[in-house]
Design a protein that fits this description.
single chain; 717 residues; alpha+beta; 8-stranded mixed β-sheet; 6-stranded antiparallel β-sheet; disordered N terminus; disordered C terminus
Length: 717
């Protein structure tokens, strides 16, 4: 690297010798070490906070004073039907600047918008799980405008202006623009931006406060107590409601301030507050990933799209399986495979029909055919996408495209796999685009439960999502070659784990980057990419390594992505996986699920749960210029929760084995002429649509109540 090179830090410390926060990247010609520049000046090095170096006491004082510039916002409603939004409040982190408006008959949209625009202009405003609040705040707006506001894909600009994002909507004298987790409100020269930071924490507000040690135990207990009686919130006096709401706002402001500072101190300052994806963007930005991505040639686009599949969720059994059961999870599975992704700038694609050549290439995109195995298989090798978007792992198909490592693992295990052709990615360079990932992971391990460690942990986990981002105009880090390789890698490791079983039927379930098995396996160590030894000590959880846990009681498998320990206690609720249903709901009624299975039922309906109906689930478009608003808009209703017991559409119906309490599931098979379809973000299978609806419902609930595991898994799995 040239002495005067314009660069951002590659790690912390950077290869130039400076700490990551000491780089100054606004001027192209300078020495990063602060010596004389060719322009004749000596440029001041940047400190970790982006300004001149300060003593620790000065830095602490400045960061503390900034709490006044973070303002938490929240509102409260009373009654059930009609549900009235009667209080809207805001507070900074010091509690010295507090604002609120009240109306026992319900606040109007104009009152709420004027409240936000009237807050101090210097303040940065934040809320927590604002789907509920936006529903009540914006309820006076007409259906067409609201429908368009919450669906930015309907407001896309065209041409060169597309980079400015979706068009705002007009309502009276106000201009509104909802993009991701940010609502922008304008009226004349006045402007207010309000961010929803729920995605940084993805749990109930009180739980997030406990994780970040925000507020005193007495304050957190007070908030939890009030939230438990939310249906009876109208029984509180206006003064009590105001005290509760302002305390929430104050603690939220402190939490966002600490979140912001943690990112600065971790070397990944935030530009946006959308969630862990914003943390991931900061991590990828330090490695200049957007400047290194190269799209595949046009003639390979369909093959690359066909090879992109999300995480694997599949069960071979349904029902209770007594322990001991061994759970193996990959540590930082996607981060490990991101760290080893190839350079695309110096790469070239070459076609081959030679099976041996793919092993010599940097990587390869392989087309295969899956013949009839002639026997009953416990597991299928490769993912297959149906035309409707459903992902299946069949025993037979016309084949498709997969990445090299996954193909080799499947070919080694299944004799019915046949190689057809491949596109080899050849490269002679030593470039490692994501070389900074192990450095961030090492720092995250050293920081542990520190706030900086938490933001690095969540940011690293979200990097894979940025590579496969399909929303927005020209996502800066999206690349389908890198995305396909990232999700294919853990599936290849799972195939290797299947091959280590003495009996493949002993593998009970695959859950993204983890497996459940009745065999105590000795799984292989991953290649060392710099995370096996940290600070001179062996790291028990290197990137890409397997971590084993023993479940002595056993596990009940209900459907792919839904399982729980047998007879779970309250302390074991974190071990419940309820993809699209909600952990709390499944944990409270797991006995009903077990009983229904023993009675031979294919599904079970759990007791109804309280659900708030927000904008997106309440306003539908019927036709051109015709919209319908549900009578339940902005109201609470009781909604039944249904759980199917089976693996369809992943597998066929179950068969009870003699003497076993559980049932085994049969693989599906497709005719030889049917090949796997390419990925299309607009086409989603029934399972993906169910998870999408669960996500919408979650975002509409106040304060992240009844958090569902919809985020578990990647892509269109």
């Amino acid at each position: 690297m040239s002495d005067y090179a314009y660069h951002t830090p590659t790690a912390d410390p950077c290869e130039c010798g400076l700490r990551a926060g000491e780089h100054r990247v606004k001027h192209r010609e300078y020495r990063a070490d602060g010596s004389r520049c060719p322009c004749g000046a000596i440029h001041r090095a940047r400190s970790e906070t982006g300004s001149r170096k300060r003593s620790p006491s000065q830095l602490k004082k400045r960061l503390r004073s900034e709490r006044a510039f973070f303002m938490g916002c929240d509102g409260e409603g009373i009654k059930r039907r009609p549900h009235r939004y009667c209080l809207l409040a805001a507070s900074d982190g010091t509690g010295k600047r507090q604002f609120w408006i009240e109306n026992p008959n319900g606040l109007s949209t104009v009152e709420c918008l004027e409240f936000f625009l009237g807050l101090p202009s210097y303040a940065r405003c934040f809320g927590f799980s604002l789907g509920y609040d936006w529903t009540k705040i914006l309820q006076d707006i007409d259906d067409e405008t609201l429908h368009s506001l919450v669906r930015p894909e309907t407001r896309r600009r065209i041409g060169h202006r597309a980079k400015f994002g979706p068009r705002p909507v007009r309502w009276g004298k106000y201009t509104l623009n909802l993009m991701g987790k940010r609502l922008t409100i304008r009226s004349g020269k006045r402007k207010r931006v309000v961010w929803d930071v729920f995605q940084f924490f993805q749990k109930r507000f009180v739980g997030a406060l406990e994780d970040w040690k925000i507020g005193t135990p007495a304050q957190r207990t007070f908030l939890a107590k009030i939230k438990d009686i939310r249906p009876e919130l109208d029984k509180l006096t206006p003064t009590q409601r105001r005290k509760y709401c302002l305390l929430e706002c104050k603690l939220l402001a402190v939490q966002v301030h600490d979140l912001d500072v943690a990112h600065i101190q971790a070397g990944i300052p935030l530009r946006r507050y959308d969630g862990a994806g914003s943390s991931a963007s900061s991590i990828l930005r330090t490695m200049q990933i957007s400047e290194q991505k190269v799209d595949p040639p046009d003639h390979l686009r369909e093959a690359v799209a066909s090879a992109f599949i999300g995480a694997r969720f599949e069960h071979s059994v349904i029902g209770p399986v007594k322990g001991p059961i061994y759970s193996h999870d990959l540590s930082g599975a996607y981060s490990f495979h991101i760290a080893t992704l190839p350079c695309l700038i110096h790469a070239r694609w070459q076609h081959t029909r030679s099976r041996t050549r793919i092993e010599k290439a940097r990587t390869a995109l392989v087309r295969y055919v899956l013949h009839d195995a002639g026997q009953r298989l416990a597991w299928g090798p490769f993912p297959f996408r149906e035309p409707n978007g459903t992902i299946v792992f069949p025993s037979r198909s016309g084949g498709g495209w997969v990445w090299r490592d996954e193909f080799i693992a499947g070919e080694r295990l299944f004799p019915n796999v046949q190689f057809e052709e491949a596109w080899c990615l050849e490269s002679d360079c030593d470039c490692v685009p994501f070389a900074g990932i192990p450095h961030f992971y090492t720092r995250r391990i050293l920081l542990g439960a520190d706030h900086r460690g938490l933001v690095l942990k969540n940011g690293l986990a979200a990097c894979s999502g940025k590579l496969m981002q399909s929303k927005g105009y020209d996502p800066p880090f999206q690349n389908w070659v890198w995305a396909g390789l990232t999700t294919s890698g853990p599936r290849a490791q799972v195939l290797d784990a299947i091959g280590l079983h003495s009996d493949p039927w002993n593998l009970l379930a695959i859950a993204a980057d983890g497996i459940f098995t009745r065999e105590d396996l000795k799984l292989p160590e991953p290649p060392d990419i710099g995370t096996h030894v940290i600070d001179g000590k062996p790291n028990p959880k290197p990137l890409g390594g397997w971590v084993k846990k023993t479940i002595k009681k056993g596990v009940f498998f209900a459907k792919p992505g839904v399982y729980f320990p047998l007879d779970p206690t309250k302390d074991e609720i974190e071990q419940v996986r309820a993809r699209g249903l909600g952990r709390k709901t499944v944990w409270e009624h797991c006995d009903k699920i077990v009983k229904a299975f023993k009675e031979g039922k294919r599904s079970v309906e759990l007791p109804s749960v309280a659900r708030f109906h927000g904008i997106k689930s309440s306003i539908t478009k019927l036709g051109r210029n015709r919209y319908s608003r549900s009578p339940d808009y902005g109201e609470w209703t009781e909604k039944p929760v249904g759980v199917t017991l089976g693996a369809w559409p992943k597998r066929l119906r179950s068969v009870r084995v003699d003497g076993a309490e559980h049932s085994i599931m049969t693989l599906r098979a497709f005719p030889d002429f049917l090949t796997s379809a390419p990925y299309n973000p607009a086409v989603k299978g029934p399972e993906a649509r169910m998870l999408q609806q669960a996500r919408i419902e979650l975002e509409e609930q106040p304060n992240g109540d009844d958090y569902s595991d919809y985020s578990e898994g990647l892509g269109d799995s």
